[in-house]
Input
Amino acid sequence: MKIKMEIEIIKTGSKFEETYEIENNLNPNEYAENLITNFNHTLRPGESPRKLLGVIVLDNSDVKHKHDWRKTNLATITRGGMSYDKMICTRCGVTGKRYGFSSVVKRDSKYKAKIYDTCEDATKQMKKLRERRNKANN
Ligand SMILES: [Zn+2]
Output
């Protein structure tokens, strides 16, 4: 995605803008903060520290998020010698399970298809299915 950062040169108070193309899975604010922090930590003689005034996402159309998993059960569930946690994505609601001590979440079978890889595609697909179901009921 394309982001625009508004930056102030602290010494002079002058402001300028800079445009960056960054990976879609990055957080624009974090990215910009890190950039400015790094700049300020590696100042060359004569350079003034900078301050980040704001970040705008210019092109957000193809941003896709990986699921943001949260555990939904309090205690780990044990069934048939397997222990797992039930997980849900806080962004799109896709559900899955995390087995044992692994950090990998396996999506539940109804969300197994590749279309459910990202929150945006999953949300679109769920909406489509819901509309189809509603139509069938009418
Ligand atoms: Zn998601």
